Structure formats: C-alpha cells, structure tokens
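User: I'll paste a sequence; please echo it back and then give the predicted structure.

Assistant: Echoing your sequence first, then the prediction.
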Amino acid sequence: MKRFTKEENSWMFYDWGNSAYSIIISTAVFPLYYKASATEAGITGADSTAYLGYTIAIATFILAMLGPILGTIADYRGNKKKFFRFFAALGVVATAALSLIPPEQWLLLLIIYTITVLGSAGSNVFYDAFLVDVSSEERMDRVSSRGFSLGYIGSTIPFIVSIAIIISAQNGILPLSASAASRISFIITAVWWGIFTLPVLRNVEQRYFIEKEKHPVAKSFKRLAETFKDIRKYKGLFLFLLAYFFYIDGVGTIITMSTAYGTDLGISSTSLLVILFATQVAAAPFAILYGRLADRFTGKFMLYIGIIIYIIVCIYAYFMNSAMDFWILAMLVATSQGGIQALSRSYFAKLVPKEKSNEFFGFYNIFGKFASIMGPLLVGATAQVTGSSSHGVFSLIFLFIAGLILLSRVPDPKASIPVPGNIKTL
C-alpha cells in the first residue's frame, strides 16, 4: 500500500484529537466525576447509572432526528465542512464549559454533557462522510482502521496528563481537590480536541457533492423522500444499517457506561483510570490488525469476529464480581472495539453513492444513534429491576446476536452499489 496522502493523514488525525473526548468525557473522568456528584447528592449507584444512560439516550435521540436532514443538506457543494466545523466547535466549547459546573450540580452536569455528546457525535457524522473524499475504496479499510488506531494512541496523551493531575491531587502532591483536578481534565480535553480539528479544516475538501440549487432545505427533504422511494436500489445498504443498528448498540453502550459498571463493582476510581488507559494502549494495535486482516479475509469476515468477541464479553460480564474480572473484560473489549467501529465505517463507505455520502452517513448516524438509545435504556432498566449492572451488560447479548444474523444477509459491497448518476467531483 502506498504512503498515506496529506488529506488521508489530516482526516485520520481528527480521530487523534476527538478520541480524547471519547476516553476522558464519555468513558473515564466525567462518568466518575458525575457518579461522585450523584452519590454525594444521595442517589444510589444503580439509579445514577440509569440516569446517565437516560441522558445518553436523550442526546442521541436529538441527533438521530437531525442526522439525515443535515446530511442531505450537507451534500451540496461546500456544506459538509461548514456542518463539521459547527458541531466540532459546539463540542469543544461545551466540553470546556463542563469545567465551570460545580460538582454538587449533578443535573446541570448532565445537561451540559448532553450538548457535548451532540457536538462530538454531530461532527463525527460529517467526519465519517469525508472518508469517501479522502480515500479510494481499496484503501478505505486501512485508512479507517489507522484513524481509530491513531485515536487510541493520541487520546492516551491527554489521558495520562489528566490521570497524573487527578492522582496527584488525590494524594496531596498537588494543592488541588479531586473535583478541581477533574475539571482541569475537561479543559485539557477541549484544547486537545480543538487543536487536532485544524488539519481537517485546512487540508480536507468535499470532492463529491451535489450542485447548490434554490430552496435547498425543501429540495433536501425531497431528495430524502426519493431515497426512501427508491429503497430497493439500496437494499444491501439498508440491510447493513439494520445489522449495524443492533451490534453497534452493544459496542457503544459498553464503551460509554463501562466506568459506571466498574464503580458499581466497587472498583476504585484510580484503578478504573489505569484499566481504561491500558485498554486504550491495547486497542491501538488491534485496530490496525483488523484493517490488515480485512485486506486478507474481507471486512465482513472481520466484523463477524468482532461481534463474536463481544458476545463473549456479554457472557463474561454476567459472572464478573472483582477488579480482575473487570481487567479481563476490558482487555477483551480492547481487542475488538476499534476494529469493529473502523471496519463498519469503511464497509458502509463502500456501499454508499459518493455524491450522497452525507445523506447516507446521516442514516448511518440515525441507525447508530437510535441504537444508542435502546442499549442504555435496556441496561438502565435491567440494572434497576435486578439491582445488578452485570445483568444489564448481559442483556446486550441479544443485540449482538441479532446484528450477527442480519450481517450474514448483507451482499458484497460491489453488488450493492447502484449505478451512479451525475456525480459531481472536484
């Protein structure tokens, strides 16, 4: 494979920046900060975990509703970068704003957190859609996988700095409270994310587009309706989205609520941070490995492997009751979380008509985000009914099995792409 181009590298480095949000805000520091705030307010562990799940569900529902419409509008020349810039800026600013919320205001924390989710997930819709602009179909698996790998590696840098500050504060080395140290990590995340958004803004352009026309919003709704009308042309694509709806639900839920599970098991915040750091480090080479194995065995085969590993994760989670169990679970997740996400993105990119990439990645988003509503709700409800977070994780096994069955029915990408119409390209 030839060296990565300037556009490919610039695109991949957004993962390097945005993944700091994923580990520090979505997965590690913020959930611990929120859980501590909720506990101080007298909320039980199971209830606070459920409230976090409900918050994620609300945020993703909002974006899921907007995704296809915004994506259809963004398919017009020059709009993709504008939408990407807006959502990235929204996420960065809201993440920095988390540092201004006092720890006792746990409800306000969840409200601002909702805005950060909108910014991060919204920018990723258009970032993912840029994959068709920066790379060819033959290179997409490698480029997408390397992007995820860079994300894991890059996110460890602000994560290490944040952990060092938090642990130093907890041990009296720094004259800071644990709460203040956590809020500093939110600022670090925002700055890191903002800096590594710049290469995309400078070097990546929308190559495939639809020419602008009068009444773009009304025309976008019309094009969206036409896509639904011609859905038979895109049977393989929508079948893949249905499979993705189920299996990515489990993946996302496990990632975003893992610290809540660990806290409910009685694992200390310091131990959780160390485990999550180790998971990031281990996940990087596996993301690259998935991309290389996809070249040899096909992306679809490697998606099967990833889903099966997650089924094993759900079964193991049912029996976990110690920090060692959580370590084993985290390492199992590390083998596949990057690979399954990277190959889902590149597999889908091969299925979509390039001139409608934003519209279809809007659907990719809505299926993924609606799935993210069901997963946290399922885990939250199960945890409250049973009083056990482990039972909640186990309930996700049904989503992975459904995704596996549906994926087996998806045809080869080249057989699923309709004959292109009047594609405009720079």
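Strands lie at 208-209, 424-425. The domain at 6-203+252-416 is CATH 1.20.1250.20 (Growth Hormone; Chain: A;).
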